[in-house]
Design a protein that fits this description.
This protein is an all-beta fold. It contains 1 helix and 13 strands; from the N terminus they run βββββββββββαββ.
Length: about 200
Amino acid sequence: DPQAPNRPMRRVWRPAPAGLAPDTGVAGKVTLSYTVRDRSHRVSNAATVTVTVKPAPLAPVVLFDFSNGVQGWAAGNWAGNTGTTEVNASGQLVVHSNNAWFESTAGTPFDLSGRTQLTLDLVSTAGTSPALVFKEGAAWEWCPVSTAPWVSSGPSTVTFDLTGLSGTCLANVNDIKSVEIWFNTGDSVIDNVIAH
């Protein structure tokens, strides 16, 4: 015990094959001080270790899988003739875009609290650089999330980082009314829109 060097050292933790594990529900920084005693009973100087315990990840949630139709997805209605959507025989959403935003406005709002990524499977015929925006809260506020790098033609998994949300975007992440994705001109096929 560094605070009382004449008292016997108490064991704070024990190495285990699986490592150290925090108690259920514990997250944040944990700091502990320790000393070691050798075979001659000499006690070392105190050392400090700080460990950051991250919260347990949430199970992935499929937001859209298009198994039963377009699930509310359509071209944004504020910009004129921007494109159309349909579901192909494989149960995937086909987006015919004229450089436009496409949105899902059907259904119950999403709660993405604690989520760090949104992913989707994408096949583009001409290539695209999709951008993600949420409309959130009672006022349906526009909340830019991120833009993915250019995706050439062919299959790809696109990952949007949700950890950079701040301000009202972060405050309303439990009330997402609409998911919006920008597609460049051409046809894109998307599936498995999942929050992680």
